[in-house]
Design a protein that fits this description.
The complex is a heterodimer of chains A (76) and B (360). Chain A has 76 residues and is α+β, with helices and mostly antiparallel strands. In chain A, 41% of the residues lie in helices and 25% in strands. Chain A has a four-stranded mixed sheet with strand order 2-1-3-4. In chain A, 47% of the residues are buried. The longest helix of chain B has 40 residues. The two termini of chain B are 42 Å apart.
Chain lengths: 76, 360
């Protein structure tokens, strides 16, 4: 599973990344988590508001740091 | 708002059946109505409580410096915070409808002028934080939204927001709040329109103009219980973030109330000093605080003889032309365009400042 956390590095993006890492650890799944800061790369996914989370190419959330519960739902 | 693109598989949590969702709505409405009733009762008690607290419990004399300062603080802090909770919740429900993608699609294909007005108004309600300015700018550009229309959005979004309006309403009354709203939108519309006329498209950074964006990501389906949850989250997030500034700002305001002599500021910030407006705008640019911190101070300054136009200009300059936001915008705009942007918006604020000093 490949998870991309998109955001230029604002507090909310940090929070999104932390939540995703915690959720992955809690679910015990094997996932490759990558932080994407490149705007071109972010735009490619049609994301115009950050933070955003993309799992296996599918955009899960845009413009908001997800809760751990939400992330766990996507991982399941 | 867009958190809702849940994995299609319902294996983890049971897929919410329709009756459950309706029950959720009913429960939210009942709890909401009860909370609202409690809110109103409490709100009505704030003024008598502050008098009782200051003059009976603490036994301070009426009309004294310390008494005035404490009564102001004890009354205004809970009042503003309560208003903030109510309004942020209501705006949160509204915002669950207005996503950046939705705004982008509404503005796409609009002409200037009507587009500027719409962009300024949407700037007020679209959930937006300044760190998201670059992706948003790219999104607007790739949707073919004219540069000037994009600027109207980017000017209005920080300047006219629910926090500023709540604080102005709570501390200065609805007239000043309405005035601020109207002039803020006006500046965003006119400045955006002027910037559009100047044909500065080639001063957008080259990489932005060459960018290829994908199809806009889908916003997930939204249900009413989720809208309520979203609103509750935004109350937690926004009020949790700004309450410190409100308390600090009101404390500073209270100190000014109690201790700065009446009329002392008239010389510096009064309507007669012609240079006070430009000076306020210039001073405001490097200052960076949010509306929550600056407005209580502004209110206190007004009480001491500062002119409304000067103070409004100062406040708009602090919120709308902030140094950190320019640093963010610098990533997509060349220096010359940044300079023109500051000049045009600054000029708009200046005009508003003079106008109010002349009229009121």
């Amino acid at each position: 599973m490949k998870i991309l956390v998109m955001g230029p590095g604002c507090p909310k993006c940090e929070q999104a990344e932390k939540t995703v890492r915690e959720a992955v650890a809690e679910a015990g799944v094997q996932a490759d988590i990558e932080k994407v800061k490149d705007f071109q790369e972010i735009a490619k996914y049609g994301i115009f508001s950050t933070p955003a989370v993309v799992i296996d190419g599918e955009v899960k959330v845009v413009g908001k740091a997800p809760s751990k519960k939400e992330v766990l739902g996507w991982l399941g | 708002m867009d958190e809702l693109k849940m994995a299609p598989c319902g294996c983890q949590s049971k897929a919410p059946a329709r009756p459950a969702a309706e029950k959720g709505v009913l429960r939210h409405l009942l709890v909401g109505a009860a909370s609202l009733a409690v809110w109103f009762v409490l709100y009505g008690q704030l003024l008598p409580f502050s008098h009782w607290f200051t003059y009976s419990l603490l036994g301070l004399e009426q009309g004294g410096h310390l008494g005035a300062a404490i009564q102001f603080f004890v009354y205004d802090t809970p009042k503003v915070l309560m208003l903030l909770v109510l309004v942020v919740y209501a705006v949160g429900v509204l915002r669950s409808f207005v996503t950046v993608n939705w705004t982008r699609s509404v503005l796409a294909g609009r002409r200037e002028s009507a587009g500027n007005v719409l962009a300024a108004l949407l700037g007020v309600v679209t959930p937006f934080c300044s760190c998201s300015a670059v992706p948003l700018f790219i999104g607007f550009m790739t949707a073919g939204i004219p540069l000037g229309v994009t600027f109207s959005f980017l000017i209005a979004a920080p300047m006219v927001n629910e926090i500023a309006l709540v604080l102005l309403y709570g501390l200065l009354g609805w007239k000043v709040a309405a005035l601020y709203f109207a002039t803020g939108i006006l500046i965003a519309v006119v400045a955006g329109w002027v910037l559009g006329r100047l044909k500065l498209e080639n001063h957008v950074e080259d990489w932005v103009r060459e960018i290829r964006a994908g199809e806009a990501a889908q916003d997930g389906p939204m249900t009413w219980p989720r809208r309520f949850d979203y609103a509750l989250d935004s109350v937690r997030d926004i009020v949790g973030r700004v309450w410190k500034f409100v308390v600090l700002g009101i404390a500073a305001g209270a100190a000014i109330h109690g201790y700065v002599p009446e009329g002392r500021l008239a010389v510096v910030m009064g309507g007669d000093a012609w240079w006070s407006v430009p000076l306020s705008v210039l001073m405001g640019i490097p200052m960076y605080t949010n509306a929550a911190g600056i407005i209580p101070v502004v209110e206190a300054l007004l009480g001491k003889g500062a002119a409304l136009g000067t103070v409004l200009a100062f406040m708009m300059s602090v919120i709308a032309l902030s140094f950190p936001e320019m640093v963010i915008l610098r990533k997509v705009l060349k220096p010359r365009l940044i300079a023109v942007f500051i000049a045009v918006v600054g000029a708009g604020i200046l005009v508003v400042g003079y106008l109010f000093n002349a009229v009121i």
